[in-house]
Amino acid sequence: MTALKxxxxxxxxxxxxxxxxxxxxxDLLALRAGxxxxxxxxxxxxxxxxxxxxxxxxxWHDDAVAxxxxxxxDVVVELIGGSDGPAKAVCEAALGAGRHxxxxxxxxLAHHGAPLARTAEEAGVAxxxxxxxxxxxxxxxxxxxxxxxxxxxRVMGILNGTCNYMLSDMRRTxxxxxxxxxxxxxxxxxxxxxxxxxxxIDAAHKLAILSSLAFGVGVxxxxxxxxxxxxxxxxxxxxxxxxxxxxxxxxxxxxSETGLEQRVHPCMVPVExxxxxxxxxxxxxxxxxxxxxxTVLEGPGxxxxxxxxxxxxxxxxxxxxxRAPAFGVPTTxxxxxxxxxxxxxxxxxxxxxxxxxxxxxxxxxxxSLGAHGISIExxxxxxxxxxxxxxxxxxxxxTRERDLKAALAEIARxxxxxxxPLSIRIEIL
Amino acid sequence: MTALKxxxxxxxxxxxxxxxxxxxxxDLLALRAGxxxxxxxxxxxxxxxxxxxxxxxxxWHDDAVAxxxxxxxDVVVELIGGSDGPAKAVCEAALGAGRHxxxxxxxxLAHHGAPLARTAEEAGVAxxxxxxxxxxxxxxxxxxxxxxxxxxxRVMGILNGTCNYMLSDMRRTxxxxxxxxxxxxxxxxxxxxxxxxxxxIDAAHKLAILSSLAFGVGVxxxxxxxxxxxxxxxxxxxxxxxxxxxxxxxxxxxxSETGLEQRVHPCMVPVExxxxxxxxxxxxxxxxxxxxxxTVLEGPGxxxxxxxxxxxxxxxxxxxxxRAPAFGVPTTxxxxxxxxxxxxxxxxxxxxxxxxxxxxxxxxxxxSLGAHGISIExxxxxxxxxxxxxxxxxxxxxTRERDLKAALAEIARxxxxxxxPLSIRIEIL
Lengths: 429, 429
Fold this sequence. Notes:
2 copies of one chain form a homodimer.
Chain A: E1 4-9, H1 13-24, H2 26-33, E2 37-43, E3 59-61, H3 64-70, E4 75-78, H4 85-96, E5 100-103, H5 106-123, E6 127-128, H6 139-146, E7 152-158, H7 161-173, H8 177-187, H9 195-198, H10 201-215, E8 225-226, H11 234-243, E9 245-256, E10 259-270, E11 282-289, E12 293-300, H12 304-320, E13 346-356, H13 361-371, E14 376-381, E15 389-396, E16 399-400, H14 401-412, E17 422-426
Parallel strand pairs in A: 1-2, 1-4, 2-3, 4-5, 5-6, 8-10, 10-17
Antiparallel strand pairs in A: 7-9, 7-11, 9-10, 11-12, 13-15, 13-16, 13-17, 14-15
């Protein structure tokens, strides 16, 4: 069989990692793919840069879009990154020219996944993106194929390694957010401008992609409710531990009675849940299906090796010839997305208050909760310090988010409540 | 596109579960498969049995082999079970007639995987078996496709739910093996004749299949070293806990310098390892690849729903038309299997002795270990009871199994050693 010819756009860490993998495993890949995988074209901005890999054998292009438009390769691999600009132009040019596309670009798919999938369908070519979510974990393949016999009930995951590293480190060391962020930046685990990770945006991109696959809806990033981890304090992590929970930044999508919930926010997860033990930069994806029940996939969520591994798997799939729609079902069959409102979210909550320690305060807080129909599962007050600030922690039974918000607004106005109340959703697994 | 026509052989729990899934999810499956999945033939021994599902629409066959030989279906689904007899005959007849085969039968593949794969290759049809290992977890797909860009270094897993349930229960309750086995039998988690599970045979079947896929070798059940869990005592489970380990029955395959190790036996795994927290009837598969690093997949390893989910995924793959060789590479490319000897196994060990508590015994035990070049990482003696039996626990540094065996044989002959020494391999994750 003839070789599968590849054009690689972008030669940063991931692109270079892919070139290395394709060279070092070439015989194994040929056996597993049924044909050789051969790079013919490469494109990047700086030709002169030392990438630790020889590129002489491949046709060089300074202009990735021009390469995508004119290449004779079967597949264009987009590893430039970014939701728009050249990455988008490369994918559109390649699909328009009838080339398969493999990309690791979560931002691109989160913003333009549905139209790109439609273009691929119309051209009769594949659009694959295993590397875009959870790195080397075959989570996309599992949802698109492995669980294809199931109606998916919930999909969720630890989708951002930086946040998971920071939360794991805060728990392990007891240090506060700012200290851990500074160290993560020094170690290269967090960017100088960390907002993309710690404000939950990266996780939201990935969740929007998982949701589309799981529920047969178009990717809709705007429908994802996003909160990051900036407000998680060492105090809350310690209380979580005491209550039998761990705090994780989760992306969660599930059908509720008001529509499709898609949300990224810090969660309390029971310490017995497997996902509670996924620490450091690892990622994990939990899938609950109508027949399979609950499965958990975990592993490295980023890095050149895992990402190149995922891209290689997509290339082998293309070489073997099976074709599934990019998001599991044809774009023409997407269900209209009815986004559930967070106000209607039903769940239990952890609430942490800083109150002035004086008689009657707790009774008043409890009365506010009761007035909004919220029942208390447990209440902790640690330390006695009359007329000083002490933390009070409340775990509620299941309640509507709008009722919780109303109660907390009322509690915030109480003269003995010294800071705006903090709440963290509890996710039952 | 025309429907994919199915012939289902075997209507026990799994077969009936598949019929239900194909009926209840038929529209979803059609979307995801790109065509409808339609049962045309079914075969089982007792037509009259109430299976809680209507079978009138399908052509009934008392003889599954005759059905497989004569069916016009595209795919024959073998859910009869057993390593030989009708299950084997059905698969051979179907492949011989140019039909794709999907099976959940691990015993069949463990005994006859390579020749069946060769027959499928020669006929140009698929042989898929996601349900044969780890139930609903897409572990076969992950190894065959998701990690196809990697040289696999080690694959291992909790592959038998009965053993994992029993070991989890022993740890949780502190009860002994016999009590827990009795209860597992009463609850239906263990068979009346439990040897197939608790002696490690079922796990060995699954490991032999995983090894073939991971390492590109023919399935070779005879090369799997197998030990069950009958010798694991409540005492050892308690010591494991104290030392920071959990005891799990693992199936492990890895390349060592003497060849391919394939082994099923109780292991001490560090409590920090994700696999240590996979409790109850759940299964887990850990894969270590040259680029992806380590990933863990966990979920329900058995049951009608998860098994039917896995079979449905295979059917959808066939409907979509991609064709990978059954064991990842063509049978003609299998590497010759050089089985590593267990004597050459290199690892750390937990040793538990029952010794008569008197001066000099520990010195003598330590001397025997030292004489065989085995160095001690830690040694515990709990309780003082002069001239009575007390347990002594030793954890070794890395050593060769043949040296350990020789040392234990010598220690067993010591007059103060009251029982044959017990050893459990420590698996570093």
